[in-house]
Design brief:
By secondary structure, the chain is of the alpha/beta class. It has one domain: Rossmann fold. The chain has 7 helices and 9 strands, in the order E-H-E-H-E-H-E-H-E-H-E-E-H-E-H-E. A 7-stranded parallel β-sheet has the order 3-2-1-4-5-6-9, sandwiched between helices. Strands 7-8 form a two-stranded parallel ribbon. The radius of gyration is 17 Å and the shape is globular.
Length: 235
């Protein structure tokens, strides 16, 4: 393959951020390796989004990650872009939440990033180019009430990404963390905010466009902490 290769995790609903990322990078000339647990849904995306390839994988399992990425390299080539978009997002009060919920969120958000980066970074370093981006949210910077099982895992994810960036930036690898300070416009969030106007939400395609921008920044102007929010968002 002569086309560039991107790995995108968390490609779930056809109207979600993962699918929007796959569409944007496909439009930009990439072959896309889509990683998610639901093989049937991935196959549907593969038929609907050009230049995409399904690799069923649970990112909390290092063995599955390594096997999936070995298959990606064998079938497509060495990826130059990794976007860790999969999220463990269950929330709850620290007094009531099952501690296993925090552990599972940590496995998806933080350990998943570690497994993916460890598997792909050596080839990027050898090529002296590559990009690793994690999609985050406001919880990476603050622990609100009822987010005790979620916010610590996103904060850890951001700090892990920063540690990776400080190690890989001098080797020509761009690592960035995109904080999405917004409610994403998907059907289930609409159900939580039925009275909110369209302008209250951020579109998955808007997030995908910002990730595309981060992935193609000039080497003399790399971002690490990046953020997006709707114009009316209070911050």
């Amino acid at each position: 393959m002569t086309r560039k290769i991107a790995v995108i995790t968390g490609v779930g609903s056809s109207v979600g951020t993962g699918a929007a990322l796959a569409r944007r990078f496909s439009e930009g000339g990439y072959e896309i390796a889509m990683l998610a647990r639901n093989a049937d849904r991935l196959k549907k995306h593969e038929g609907a989004i050009p230049n995409t390839h399904a690799f069923a994988c649970d990112v909390t399992d290092e063995g599955q990650v390594n096997r999936a990425l070995s298959a990606v390299k064998e079938q497509l080539g060495a990826p130059t872009v990794l976007i860790h978009n999969a999220v463990g997002g269950k929330i709850g009060s620290f007094l009531e939440v099952d501690p296993d919920v925090l552990l599972q969120n940590f496995k998806v958000n933080t350990m998943g990033l570690l497994y993916l980066a460890r598997a792909l970074a050596p080839d990027m370093v050898k090529a002296e180019r590559g990009t690793i981006i994690a999609t985050g949210n406001t919880s990476a910077f603050r622990g609100k009430s009822n987010y005790a099982a979620f916010a610590p895992t996103k904060a850890a994810q951001r700090i892990l990404a920063e540690s990776i960036a400080r190690e890989l930036n001098p080797k020509g690898i761009h690592v960035a963390y995109l904080m999405i300070d917004a409610v994403i416009n998907v059907p289930w969030t609409r159900g939580f905010f039925p009275d909110k106007p369209d302008s209250f939400f951020i579109e998955p395609a808007t997030i995908a466009e910002e990730v595309w921008h981060l992935a193609h920044q000039s080497r003399n102007g790399w971002s690490f902490n990046a953020e997006v929010r709707p114009f009316g968002e209070s911050w």
